[in-house]
Model the fold of this input.
Amino acid sequence: MSEVKLTQLSHGGGCGCKIAPALLQQILGETKVKLPFANLLVGTETSDDAAVYRLNNQQAIIATTDFFMPIVDDPFDFGRIAATNALSDVYAMGGTPIMALAIVGMPINALPVEAIRAILQGGEAVCEAAGIPLAGGHSIDSAEPIYGLVAIGIVHPDRLKKNSEAQAGDVLILGKGLGVGVLAQALKKGALSANGYAQLIASTTQLNTVGSELSGLNGVHALTDVTGFGLLGHLLEMCRGSGLAAALQYDHVPILSEALLLAQQGYGPSAINQNLASYGNEVDFAAHLENWQRRLLADSQTSGGLLVAVAPDTVDEVLSCFDRAGFAEAAAIGTMMQGDPRVVVS
Done:
């Protein structure tokens, strides 16, 4: 099993596998109509992180799914990353996971049984850490390795946090450093150091459990997580849903330290180019920013950090929540403001 190179069995990896934003919009259609179900609190209208259905005045069910091809070669680590990423969408709605189902597609003639078992064990370990059962799933024989979860969670309807309710003047806080896509591509090309790999794994396997705590704060207005479309892409979704613009301060954005030099050397997944081609016309970059800096803001994150829009008087409390939960790189990175949906980067 130690000789298996999972990343060599797939054409992409992690959330970099996602269909580019512009193409996805063409596939789904231009119009997103609110479905006529009064208890469907969140559907497809604002490209939010999960669907939410109200059961009663005290409970709403969160349902989401996420799966992808390997971002690392180690089977157990791949399973952990994929499971952590899938559960993140529940936390990004302000909810708490209660159960998961496994999605498994494996090239059974290319991977030994031990490797496939290790992938599943990685997912099971993350579900155990989240305090939920991995209660079943579905498997197929596929050309490339695919793993992920259907994640089910619960939230009080009054504590639900959407990506579409940011307010002008809100401060933007990011929970994890950027650069996961850069590190992952360096790994695939054999250029990632041991320290870089350790940083990649530490970031992508850190559960965004702080989202459940943030849902109880009235000053938290909007919440999402940063994944395949990069920081800019998911911030633009928040802007569109809220009918606002955003100002981003590049020097305040946390970057994973091991990704900095690699980004300057040109490492980064092809998804960066797809992301910028999809939404680059909605971003105003300051002239002093170099190309590698712009690319980092569009780097596809796998199991990325929470992006939170909070009232100015709640910033310290939110940062304290992140700090207590072990998110040492969490930082205020910008503000929401009046204007047509777009991002201004200074």
About this structure: The longest helix spans residues 113-130. The two ends are 47 Å apart (CA to CA).
